[in-house]
Amino acid sequence: MDAGPYSIHVEKRPLRLAFLLDKRRLQWEHLPAIFAYNRGKWGGRFNPLIGFDTDDLPSPAWDILETLDPDIILSLDRLADSLLTDIDDRLSPCTVEHLCKRQEDIAPFRVNIFEEGLSILPTWPNVRVAAHAPNPIFVLLEPARELDQDTRRFVELTFGHYDHFVALDRALSQHSHKSFPVSNRPDLATALQQLTTFGTFVHPTQISTLPNPIPDAEYQRFGETFTVVVGDSLDDAIYFWNRPLYRPLWKRSQFNEVILPTGLIKDEAFRPVLAEWLHRAADPYGSTTTRVEFVSVSLNQSDLTALVAPLLPTVRAERIAQVVPYEALKLRRWPVPVIRSTTDSYRATASREQIVLAEPDVEMSYSRDEHWVADLFVEFHSTRYRNYIRDFWWQLPTHNGLAQRMFRRTSRVQRSGYPSALMKRGEPRLDIDLLDEAAIFATLLIEQKPSGSNLDDREQLAARRRFHDLRTSDKGRYLNGLLDLFGGLFAASNVLEVRYWRRMFTILSGIDANSDARRLETIQGRLRKRARMPLTAGDYERFILATGEYVLQVAKEVGREGREIPYSAFRGEAEKELSEYNSRRVGEDSRPFDEEDLRRAMGELTEARILLMGVRPRCPSCGSAYWYHIDEASQIVECKGCERRHALNPQEDWFYRLNTLVQTAFYQGVIPVVVTLGERLQRSRSGFFYRTSVELFLDEQGPPSHEIDALCVVDGKFMIGEVKQSNGLFSPADFDKLAEVAERVQPDTVFVASLDLTQQTTTITHGLARLRERLASRRIEVKWIQLSPHVFEPSPIR
Predict the structure, then answer these.
(1) Residues 297-321 pLDDT 10s
(2) Nearest to 790 by CA among 675, 680, 698
(3) Distance separating alpha carbons of residues 341 and 553, to the nearest angstrom
(4) pTM reported for the whole predicted model
(5) What does the radius of gyration of the chain's CA atoms come to, in whole angstroms?
(6) Which of 484, 472, 509, 467 is nearest to 725 (CA)?
(7) Which residues of 749-763 are buried (b: 16+ CB within 10 A; e: fewer)?
(8) Are strands 49-52 and 17-22 parallel, antiparallel or unpaired?
(9) 612-643 pLDDT tens trace
């Protein structure tokens, strides 16, 4: 990897978990343990709970998971293979574990995972940050074992609580706090009455919102409304837990949600205390403007309205509604990395580096064996994109093998395309090994996605067969040479996307559609003539030899057909191009021809040895005219025909010839690939990698099974495509081969393109439809890439 000096920006964040809870297995005893586990973790309040009752997840649940992009997926029992495969394809987490694998005979239920996130304690700094106020009071309601079910659920789920241990007691000793033992409902009433005052109270549930790592949510009408979830079902509890995800950023660490079992509302003795406390909890500073929403998943509108009616004289309700278990979650994200004041920055100079990261400022709880995550935004520098002014980053497809090869530790590629590394407390050294493009695409095309550990449920999935090997194809080698000659993809596409230069290079290559058609007709005629004759074994061998010799002769003729043209031809074509350009600008001033622009452009091409300069003197003896490169020309030259020596004319014109590599590239049809990849490069926002055309092999022996014209990674999305010179060159087999490759390597996008502005042929239309139908279940996007209009339109010379 040809890296220059580059920056590495690191965002420290909590481990993101997601709990997939099969409601066919889920019991109430599971939820308090899951709630308590998350409330004890740094950022744990934002770990979503997803309930489901089939072997697949509902669409809104997938929306939540894809938006939050968890690092670890946890379930009660092992998930169905189909769901595990979908999770691997759509989320690519570090690990997928099920919690009950070691707990069949253990009670009560507890959450234990292989790689624990950092714990968080109610220290005085954490209490103040959660409160957004100068003198908060931390409140701890401690439910007794004999507490009735409704009261216990209200206390445990709404406020949260801790089991006492040394680190917790040390944290609580740093500041004043209030503890309320709750042995029965009157004890709860007493506690709520003491909390029904003006003041800032902080509960355990708020501590786990720190450091508020989830991006800001898009506006929702009730996003800032104090929420009371009413009901006794598991769905009600799950909805309550997920509600902070939909809050605006500034609101999330406040006390905004309450879950009310119906038994508490029906308790006439407890109801007045409950109503007064709800009123003050929703409006702690007495602004009189705060409103409350009463919502339920399990109760319909009329039953919910009747149930909460006795509370309404005291509590002002903004809405009373039945809600669905999941709502669409939309967060405000930036398409490129945003370097914040909390971001740590490091400087590196080599493709292999070691950096020591600053660890999160989170006080250690009871164990050092805990982990946090480093999101890495690594600047991408490569000579392949020299002269391209946009900043690029290491933004990759969601194949965790790429991240693990870069960091040599448990790591993953997030859905945003940026890699993350799992860091253990007390072990801050991170090794970085930047990959080259060959390694990136070899990983994507050949390697299986790695699982997190031997405890990962994906370990038992049947391995998908990808490809055994890949090699650069002949077309790819020509393309590599062409790009090296131009100085990279950006420079090459800048020239070849201009219609004028493609026209001039075509002329210099001696390519003529009419002569190609005549040649093809001659070849086909000879083959038909031979095929009609009855062939013996000897005749067949002579036919093969003769045909081979003829094809070789044609290839030599084609190879010799390059032409030399004088500067006047360049000027004449440039004037025609500008004239057509001006004719299309109706109502605008005509642009004058500036010969200096043409000379400058030709100078750059001759300097790069794309255009070769020389003279073509006519021999006074035999009358032949041969071209001599400027390096081999002298005042006296030797005729390449009669070999007589003669002097150059003092006024010889310069003639230009095209570099044979560029000429061959035109014959091989690589120019459309350059233009297509160049457009993908210029349309990318934050990341781009590409690989020239490759051959793919299914096994160690035998010929290649498939060939891909274009491979690229654009803003973290893996794309493969078939590119032709014209629409008429596509065949049904091209689409079938493309589908076979896509099914094996799972790209994000399959595309088809051509250097042709005409309407799609029936073959293309039907082929794209078959591709979409075949790849729909794999969620692979299929699209036709129509090159930009300026590629086909006249333009001033540049």
Answers:
(1) 999 999 999 999 999 989 999 999 9
(2) 675
(3) 68
(4) 0.88
(5) 35
(6) 509
(7) bbbbbbbbeeebbeb
(8) parallel
(9) 998 888 888 887 888 888 888 778 888 888 88
